Amino acid sequence: MSTQPDTFSAPIEDADDAVSYAGVRLPKAENRESPLIPEKGKYAEYINDRFSVLQLQQKLAISFLMGEPILIEAGTSIGKTTAVRKMASELGWEVHYVNLNGATDVEDLMGKYIPNANKTGPTDPEYVFADGRVTSGLRQEKGKIKVIILDEFNAAAPNVLIRLHEVLDALERGGKVVLSEDASEDISTNKECTKVAAFMNPPGKGYLQRPALDPAQLRRWVYQKLPDRLPPEAFKFSTKALFGVGKKEEHVQSNALVIPRDYALTDEQMAEIPGIELIAEKYMEFHAAANGLLQQRSIASGQPQPFAYDDREEPRRVRDFVSRFYNGDITETFQKALRYYYVNKLLADEDRQKLEELVSHVSYTAPATPSKRKGLETGRRDIDAEIAERKQQILDLLEGAVPTAEAVPATSAEEHEARELMGAGQFFGLTELEKSFGIKLKPSEVPAMPPRKEIERHAKLGHTLRLRVSKAADGTPLTMKRMAELMEEKFAKDKDGKVLYPRDWYKTESFFTNDVPKTAWVFTTDTVLSGSTGKNYLQQTEFLADYVRNTLFKGEKVPAEYEEALREFDTAKPEITRLMSSDWKAAAQKLSKLKLNTLRHKPAAALFDFVQTLRATSDKKRTLKDKWTWTNEVSSDGYLVFLGRCDSDGARVFYDGPDFSFGVLGLSLSREFP
Questions:
Q1: With a threshold of 0.85, does the pTM exceed it?
Q2: Domain end: 259, 278, 304, which one?
Q3: CA–CA distance from 409 to each of 431, 442, 443, 508 (Å)?
Q4: Which of 26, 414, 433, 443 is least crowded, fewest Cβ atoms below 10 Å from its Cβ?
Q5: CATH number for the domain including 89?
Q6: Helix, strand or coil for residue 127?
Q7: How many C-beta atoms lie closer than 10 Å to residue 89's C-beta?
Q8: pLDDT tens, 361-388?
Q9: Which are the contacts of 176, defined by CB distance < 8 A and separation ≥ 6?
Q10: 177-198 pLDDT, tens per residue?
Q11: In angstroms, what CA-CA distances link 171 with 134, 188, 642?
Q12: How far apart are CA 110 and CA 572, in angstroms?
C-alpha cells in the first residue's frame, strides 16, 4: 500500500523510456550518446519544490509535448535554463544553447565559414561551413531529440529575431529552413525532434533596460510570465533543503497534474464529446472578455512586456491542448487549457483572480435526470420536522439508546469474527447492507463467509471485505440504472451529492441497464493498487499478474484457479501485444475475457461499492474519490470502460481503447467468494 495520500503524486516519475513531470510524460531519446547531453550527476542536488521549479518543469513539459516553442519571462535566479538542462539530462536530449546578447549575430545562430583545420592537400577547401547552435539543433539525427535554448531573448538584435521567426514558422508547419548562409541548403524540420525554449528578463526594471518585445512577435510563442523573484515559499523550502533540514522534493496535489493521452483526439472524436458545442461557445465569450480586460488595462497594467490574446493562435492551442489532455471531464480539461495559455501570462494575483473568475464560467453540466418523486415539484420539505428528527437522534445517542432488532439485522458469529479480523472501516456486512441500500437478507440468503485464512491474508494487505447483492429490497435487479433511481433521493436528502455523474452515452449500454453485482462476499480495494497507474490495459494486466504472484500469494503456492489464469495470460500476451497496434478492438475483447481480469471490478460492482461505502460510514468515505479504475467491461462500440472520480458530482463512467493510460487511472481489486 502507498504511504502517500491519494490526493498527492510523485512530481517526477522516471521510467525506462520516459520521464513524467507533474503528470506530463516526455519520451527519452533512443540515442543518448552525445557530449551535448548534460551530465545527470550534476543535478543530483537539484531541489524540486512545488512553489516554483515543479511548476516550471510542468510548463516546459507541456510545451515540449505539444511541439510549441515556449517563451518564459522571469527574473534572474528563478532557474529557467537550469530546469531545461536538468530535464534534458534525465531525458537524454541534446542541449543547443545560445545567448542572444547584443554581440550575437545571425551567423552565431545559423553558421558560417571557418578555416578548414583538416586541410591536408591543395584540393581540400580552404574554408568549411560550421553549423551555428540553431542549425545544429534543427538537423535531424536518428534516435536523437534536441532542445534549442535561446537565452536573453529580448536582448537580440532585430535581424536575429527576424531570422528566428523564419525558423519558428518552418518548425510550426514542418517545413524547411533555407540556410542562406551556406549556399541555400534546405534543412527539413520536425518539432518531434527539435524543441525550442526561450527565456528573457522583464523589460526595464534594472535588467540593462531590456526592451519590450512587439506583441506581434509573441504570437509565435507560448508566452508565460513567472515571478521576478523566487517566491518566499520556494526560497524557504530550497534553503532548508540545502542545509539538510528539509526534503529535496515535494509531492504535488493530484488536481495540479496534467495527464496527456497516448494519442490526440481526432476532429470526429472531439465533436462527439458531450457538451463540446456549448463549452466552445462559452470559450469564445471568455476569449472576448479576456481581451477586453487586457485592452482596458484592467489586467496586466503593471507588466512592462505587452502581449495580446491572439484571435487565431490561442483557439488553436486550446483545441490542441484539449485533444491531447482530454481526461473524460471536458470542463476540467478546458479550464486547465485556459489557465495554461491565458492565466499564465499574468503576474499579479489580483489579475489572475479576475481571469480565474472568467475561467470558472467555461463549464458544462450535463442535463440532470428528471426527478421521479411524486408531488414534490412545487413542494418543500418540512425543515422543522427534519430538525426535530435529528435532535431526537442525538438525544438517543447521548442516552445510550440502541436501534431495535427490527432496525439492524442480526449478525452471525462468523460475521462478528470477520469484522474483528478486518478492522474498523474495512468490513461491510449485513448491518452496512441495510444501512446503505435498505436491504435485509434472510439467513438462508447470506452466502458462506470466506475462509479465515483468506480473511487474514487480505486484512494484512489493507483490503476491505464487503457483502454485495444482486437484488434491491423490492426484488428488482440491482443494475447501475436501478441503483441511481433508488439512491438519488437519499443522496439529495442527506446532501451526499449525486450517485452518477450524468452522461448520455452509457444509458443504453447493457452494463448499465442489465448487469448486476454478484451476490457474494468480496475482497476489494477502496482505491487503485499502488503502482498500477500510468499504464495501459495490457500493462495493468501484467502488473496484476505480478501482484497475484508476489503480493497476494507471496511465499505460497498460487491456487490452481489463479495458476490457470496466469498461464492463460502468458499464452495470450504475444497475440494481444500484436493486436494492440493492429486491431485494438480485438485486443480489448481478449483482455476483458481473461480469467485474470475477473479480479477487476465490473462497473455495476464498482458503483455498488461506492454507494455502500458512502452511505454506511459515519465520515462519508468515498471509494475512488481521486482515481479511476479500468473495469473488465467492453462498451457496445468496443471500448474498455473505466469508472472513478466519485466526488459530490457522482461517479463518472467513461471509456477508451486498451492503449490509453494516464496518471490517475489504475486497477482496483475485486476478488469474489464464492
A1: no
A2: 259
A3: 6, 9, 10, 36
A4: 443
A5: 3.40.50.300
A6: strand
A7: 18
A8: 999 887 654 443 333 333 334 444 544 5
A9: 170, 186, 187, 188, 189
A10: 999 887 778 999 999 999 999 9
A11: 12, 9, 37
A12: 53
Give residue-wise pLDDT tens across range 202-230.
987 655 567 899 887 889 999 999 998 88
Q: How far is CA 262 from the centre of its chain?
A: 12
54 near 48, Cβ under 8 Å? yes
Tens of pLDDT, residues 12-58 = 888 889 999 988 999 999 999 999 999 999 998 888 888 889 999 99
Does residue 425 lie within any of the structural domains? yes
Indicate left, alpha or beta for 91 from its phi (over 0: left) and psi (-120 to 50: alpha).
Answer: alpha
CA dihedral 62, 63, 66, 68 (to 10 degrees): 170
Question: Do residue 88 and residue 162 come from a single domain?
Answer: yes
Task: Point out the least confidently predicted range of 259-263, 324-328, 585-589, 610-614.
Answer: 259-263
Q: Is the pLDDT of residue 286 over 50?
A: yes
Residues 26 and 67 in one domain: yes
Q: Is residue 545 part of a domain?
A: yes
| Consecutive H or E run containing 443 | none
Q: Are 241 and 88 in contact, with CB atoms under 8 Å apart?
A: no
Residue 674, preceding peptide bond in cis (omega within 30° of 0) = yes
- Tens of pLDDT, residue by residue over 155-164, are 999 999 999 9
Place of cell 537539484: 46
Asked whether the predicted pLDDT for residue 167 surpasses 90, the reply is yes
Q: What is the residue type of 83?
A: A
Matching residue, cell 539530462: 89
Can you point out the beta strands (E) in 28-172? 70-73, 94-99, 111-115, 127-131, 146-151
* Residues 567, 662 within the same domain: yes
The predicted-structure confidence for 448-502, as pLDDT tens digits, reads as follows 999 999 999 999 999 999 999 999 999 999 999 999 999 999 999 999 999 999 8
User: Does residue 456 sit in the same domain as residue 433?
Assistant: yes
As a whole number of angstroms, the distance between CA 653 and CA 504 comes to: 10
CA dist 322 and 124 (Å) reads: 55
C-alpha closest to that of 264 among 69, 91, 70, 65: 65
How is 222-255 classified by DSSP, letter by letter? EEEE--SS--HHHHHHHHHHHTTSS-SB--EEGG
Answer yes or no: are the C-beta atoms of 154 and 211 closer than 8 Å.
yes
- The residue segments making up the domain with residue 70 are 8-259
Q: What percent of the chain has pLDDT over 90?
A: 69
Integer Cα distance of 280 and 265 in angstroms: 16
For residue 370, tell me if it sits in a domain: no
- Total count of domains within the chain: 3
Length of the chain: 674
- Has residue 673 got a pLDDT over 80? yes
**pLDDT tens digit string along 590-629?**
999 999 999 999 999 999 999 999 999 999 999 999 899 9
Concatenated DSSP letters of 578-604:
HHHHH-HHHHHHHHHH-GGGGGBPPHH
pLDDT classification of 504: cutoffs 50, 70, 90: confident
Q: Which pairs from 559-568 meet CB under 8 Å and 24+ separation?
A: 561/595, 562/596, 564/595, 565/594, 565/595, 565/596, 565/598, 566/596, 568/594, 568/595, 568/596
The distance of Cα 70 from the centroid of its chain, to the nearest Å, equals 21
Owner of C-alpha cell 432496525: 407
CA pair distance 503, 645, nearest whole angstrom: 14
Element (DSSP H or E) covering residue 649: none
Nearest in space to 227 (alpha carbons), one of 347, 81, 59:
347
Same domain, 283 and 431: no
Q: Is residue 105 part of a domain?
A: yes
Instruction: State which of 259, 279, 296 marks the end of a domain.
Output: 259
